Every structure is written in C-alpha cells, then in structure tokens.
Amino acid sequence: MRAPCYAPPMILALRLPVLLTLVLLSTTPHALAADYEGRWAEEPAWCRNTRASGTDELPITISRRLVETFASYCRVLSAVRTSRATWRLRTSCRDEGRAEWEPRTPVTFVLRVNGKNLYLRDDTGVQNLTRCPN
After folding, report:
1. What is the CB-side half-sphere exposure of residue 103 using CA atoms within 13 A?
2. For 53-72, what is each residue's pLDDT tens digit?
3. pTM for the complete prediction?
4. Which of 71, 110, 108 lies closest to 91, judged by CA?
5. Total tally of structural domains belonging to the chain
6. Which domain holds residue 89?
7. N vs C: which end of the chain shows fewer Cβ within 10 Å?
8. Is residue 10 situated within a structural domain?
C-alpha cells in the first residue's frame, strides 16, 4: 500500500494563487466570444442568402477582426466594451470596387446586443438586426 501524498502547507498556499490566475486568464474577454460576434440580418429570411445568390440582402458578419457587409470589408482595429451589452469598434474599411492601394475609410461602429437583437450604429445611420442561426 502506498503512502498518501502529502504536500506541505506552504506548497498548497502557493498553488491557490497560481490556480486562480489560470482560471482568470482562461475566462478573460479575449478567451470568450464577444456577444456581438456572428451573422446578423435585417430580415430573418436574409440569413439564407450568400454572395452567390446574387442579392444585396445579405447578413452582416461581425467578428473580432472583421465587419463584412454587402459592399464593404472593415478590419477591426480596436474593440472596447463600453457597458455590459455595448461595444465600440474602430475599423478601417474598404468599399466594394476600391483598389487595394486606395486608402481605407475609418468607420466607428457602436453595437448594442439585447438577446438575439443587435442595434448597430455607424456614420450612415442605425440598423436593428436579428442574429442568424449558426
């Protein structure tokens, strides 16, 4: 029969802060998906549409790195949570038809999530969107 493993109290005292640090690091906002990430559409039927379907009624795709709309691609430069359900994304956008060498346009998006709904505000106005199923 093996003797039980015994750790001196000092070792146990050192383990607790290390374990707490590991738990906190694994649950930081960078490790978790932001609640705004996903595909969003003005009308639920638009969720089925793709670029290949030839319509401009496409969902908006938002991730930590990209905001993709029907006619533009925006690279996310920073994302700041301003409240429990609100984010401010500072982006650099290229509209459809613009050459790679042309300067990008700075756009700030304000996103507010309420369950399956997303309020999106930018320089052009406000959109109320619904989350598309995965």
Report:
1. 3
2. 878 899 999 999 999 988 88
3. 0.71
4. 108
5. 1
6. 38-131
7. N
8. no
